[in-house]
Specification:
- This protein has a 23-stranded mixed sheet that branches.
- It starts with a helix and ends with a strand.
- About 10% of the residues lie in helices and about 50% in strands.
- The chain is mainly beta.
- A hairpin with a 3-residue loop joins strand 20 and strand 21.
- It has 1 helix and 23 strands.
- It is elongated.
Length: about 300
């Protein structure tokens, strides 16, 4: 029986190789489709702008849901409109005539929601600079649920105090600006998180990148970077318990006047610099601070870096 195992495995291997060759040869250019001389890994060889698609929401609040394989996603709110407009551009590294057939996108309206999907269709793998960039304008009261596997995600000029936005990127910067919402949730595998003039409860995580908030009124639920500094201000206002953590980097926090918050801050290698001047302290050491403030507790921690609270 053991003598048969080797030949059987060999036959399976030959069959798999044969199937792979058949798949390649079935392509329009056979083996040339692998060893193309006109494939450019850098700048795209071709660009194709798609006709804009518009949808009238009738003033109802719905979700803009985007799922993109490769390319940026941007949603910008426009005042005094009920129309969602989707602008899409395809880019391909290949100069062959059917390159754009392998890059597809779909836009559809389901109930009050607008759903946009961008996909690069070669065995589920993206090679070179083949992508779909998606740029959307929408009423300011819409909710955004935006995801891209490789590219930047941007949300601008949205105003709905009940909205709960969710933005995700596996590899790219996530930026939120001029947004008022109930909650903003950001997830990034590799990229910086930027917030400017945002008023919301915040959940923000990145595995590799800085987290920066300017001119923002934030209630921190969870802010975490595995590798990067964190700087949040100018008016943190805690109404619930929250946590801020980085494995490697400094943390700078700026509160509004007379904040009702209790702070528990710890660093393993660095120092805690407390400049808030309200509430007094229960414990104040070089690497650990607990304030005597009333209200919810904000836990702040870095393993490598200093903490400044002002």
């Amino acid at each position: 029986m053991r003598k048969l195992v080797g030949p059987i495995l060999f036959l399976f291997l030959v069959a798999e190789i044969g199937l792979a060759i058949w798949i390649v040869m079935a392509q329009p250019e056979g083996l040339r489709s692998i060893f193309r001389a006109d494939v450019n890994i850098g700048e795209p060889a071709q660009t194709q702008v798609q006709p804009p698609q518009t949808f009238d929401t009738g003033g109802t609040v719905g979700v803009i849901q985007v799922n993109n394989d490769n390319g940026f996603v941007r949603v910008r709110g426009l005042a005094n409109t009920s129309v969602v407009t989707v602008n899409t551009t395809k880019y391909s590294s290949s100069s062959d005539s059917n390159a754009f057939d392998r890059i597809t996108y779909r836009v559809e309206k389901k109930g009050n929601d607008i759903i946009v999907t961008g996909k690069y269709n070669i065995f589920g793998i993206t090679f070179g600079n083949n992508r779909v960039d998606i740029d959307i304008t929408a009423p300011t009261n819409m909710v955004a649920n935006l995801t891209t596997s490789n590219g930047a995600v941007t949300l601008l000029d949205m105003n709905n105090s009940q909205a709960r936005h969710q933005l995700k990127s596996d590899n790219g910067t996530i930026s939120v600006g001029q947004v008022k919402a109930a909650r903003v949730e950001l997830h990034d595998q590799n990229g910086q998180l930027n917030l400017d003039n945002v008023s919301a409860q915040i959940w923000a995580e990145t595995n590799n990148g800085r987290i920066i908030a300017n001119n923002s009124t934030l209630n921190i639920e969870r802010v975490k970077s595995s590798n990067g500094s964190i700087e949040l201000g100018n008016a943190l206002q805690q109404t619930t318990d929250g946590s801020i953590e980085t494995q490697n980097g400094s943390i700078i926090l700026r509160f509004g006047p007379n904040p009702a918050v209790r702070i528990d801050a710890t660093t393993s290698l660095g120092s805690v610099n407390y400049q808030l001047g309200v509430g007094g302290t229960i414990l104040q050491e070089t690497k650990h601070l607990i304030t005597a403030g009333t209200g919810p507790t904000l836990k702040v921690k870095t393993n490598l870096g200093s903490i400044t609270i002002s």
